[in-house]
Amino acid sequence: MSIEEPASAERRMDEKSRIQSIGKMREILGCFSTVDRHLSLAEIASRAGLPRPTAHRMVSSLREIGFIEQNARNGSYSLGIGLFELGSLALANMDLLREAKPYMDRLSRLAGESAHLGVFNGYQVIVVEREEPGDRPTRGLQPSEASPAYCTGVGKATLAFQRPEVIARVIDGGLKPYTNKTITKAEALKEDLAAIRKRGYAIDDCEHEIWVRCVAAPIRNASGAVFAALSVTGAADRMTDKKLSDLAPLVVQTADTISRQIGFQPQG
Questions:
Q1: DSSP labels for 139-157?
Q2: Pick among 1.10.10.10, 3.10.150.10, 3.40.640.10, 1.10.600.10: CATH of 6-85
Q3: What is the pTM of this model?
Q4: CATH 4.10.520.10 fits 94-261, yes or no
């Protein structure tokens, strides 16, 4: 039986320690959300399941690389700009963004309205791309803008296909009324999401912005999970009921095409 050399054993221990540290840092970053933007060290330690000294050491390391920031007034912590910069780079290199752009451009030109691409982050939808049909002034969501999942087209098109606990979490976060058409009752929202699942697309009827209507469809990844959505958005006076109805099949078809381009394979 051979005895492992001390240097080799030490390297393996160092590698194991680094992996464990990365895992702990990931747990700490996962403590934050759009609802819990600011946390104390005690809250971080409790949520991450770490001893307070360990949590403090990890938080200090994350602060050094800009992934966490500390409020000088009350000592609370929040996610840092370094994560935003890294996330923006990741989004720019996503297969979704590369594959979707030409289809979004075509959809926008055919519809004569703007097309939005949004990615669900577990609470909200982040708009990662927007295409315009021409020189028309832009209205509505802009790239990198976060939008509510319960009252926008891209938001509802993704939220409708999430697990019940994810839908419950969004509802528990509050259904703020952005307009007089925003759905603010949990049961009414659940009924709307059920209708979206049945017909395959979502409608935003001036629910987030009073002058905007849109139709949106879900995008699936290679495993079949809905993680993003595509919409056609326009001014309410142009987006009539008939136009929304006419555009819905085109939006669904485009979203399905993008899904297949990034690896989704429908069954049957």
A1: -S--TT-EEESSSSHHHHH
A2: 1.10.10.10
A3: 0.69
A4: no
